[in-house]
Amino acid sequence: MEKALVRSTPTPARRPGRSAAAVPRYVWLHQSLLNDISNGKYPVGSLLPTEDQLGKTYGVSRHTVREATRKLVDSGLISRHPSIGTVVRAASVPRPYVAALGSLKELMDYTSTTRLEVLGQAMVTADEAMARDLRCERGSQWLELQTRRHLAGQVAPISFTRVYLRPEFAQLAAHLKGDHPSIYELLQTLYGQDVDSVVQQIEATLMPAPAALLLQLSPGSPALRMLRCYFDRGARLLTASANLYVADRFQLVTSWSQREARPDPRR
Q1: Poorest-pLDDT segment among 34-48, 58-72, 98-112, 130-144
Q2: How are beta strands 78-81 and 97-99 bridged, if at all?
Q3: CB–CB of 150/160 below 8 Å?
Q4: What is the mean predicted confidence (pLDDT) over 120-138?
């Protein structure tokens, strides 16, 4: 149960002086709130004061408060909850998760360290656009899972993910609870089905409103879309995941070496 912040009469924060005149007011307030959260003025688990209260405490407008707190929401420090208020989630900005997905082994290692939280599901039929996107048969049926992806053992989600499963693998969804195995492992364990190849497509995009709401972000926030399609030996799509990663919670790092590309002169 969230604990409400016990408030005493606040000491007004110092507003930016002449030397900081070029700094936008919301940037100054964002940094001030960061400092106050990190030093325990607003403890983790407590409710942040309302916009009106913050405006009076820091001597700024509600518009400035909204801009400053929006940045705190985007970075995962606070989250908004209707009828409850704004909850402090962390004392410092979490470092983004850094993934190296340059090989099939690295991809499987990554999926083994993340967990999916299923929010909803529906049967969908692949139209022409979906079939082209997922590289599947037009008119084929799929179980679509709407999920949030978390790092194992962490609460803050790093992405909104739509997972597509063939109907014969539908029971797999029941195993996506708690500290569950990856879908790759579940396909092997439950169905004896091996993944032979993976196609990964990456593009910059903006977070759509439904996903932004579930991730406690502002609609239109920067996002990284990563579509991964898993195929069997016959090039039949087994499953796919369309991931929308939060920009400042995820980094993709890939490295190459000249030694790998240089031909062997002895051949």
Answers
A1: 98-112
A2: unpaired
A3: no
A4: 96
Give the Cα separation of 80 and 155 in Å (integer).
15
Beta-sheet pairing, 250-252 with 97-99: parallel
Q: Are 182 and 173 in contact (CB under 8 A)?
A: no
| Whole-angstrom distance, CA of residue 140 vs CA of residue 166 | 9
Question: What are 19-27's contacts with CB under 8 Å, separation 24+?
Answer: 25/60, 25/61, 25/64, 26/60, 26/64, 26/67, 26/68, 26/71, 27/68
Residue type, 41: K
Match 């940094």 to its residue by tokens.
Answer: 31
Query: In whole numbers, what is the pLDDT of the chain averaged over residues?
Result: 82
Higher pLDDT, 211 or 179: 211
Q: Which of 71-80, 127-136, 143-152 has the highest mean pLDDT?
A: 127-136
Q: Amino acid identity, residue 243?
A: N
pLDDT of residue 177: 87
Q: Are the CB atoms for 229 and 236 separated by under 8 Å? A: no
The confidence score (pLDDT) of residue 20 equals 46
Domains of the chain: 18-88 (1.10.10.10), 97-252 (3.40.1410.10)
Q: Which amino acid is at 256?
A: W
Tokens of 223: 């996002």
DSSP string, 24-54: -HHHHHHHHHHHHHHTTSS-TTSEEPPHHHH
pLDDT digits (tens, 9 = 90+) for 187-196: 999 999 999 9
Q: Per the structure block, which two tokens stand in for 178?
A: 């708690």
Q: Which tokens in the block code for residue 87?
A: 């909850």
Strands (E) across the chain are located at 47-48, 78-81, 85-88, 97-99, 114-125, 141-151, 157-165, 197-206, 222-231, 237-246, 250-252
| C-alpha distances out from residue 86 to 26, 104, 209, 237, Å | 18, 40, 19, 42
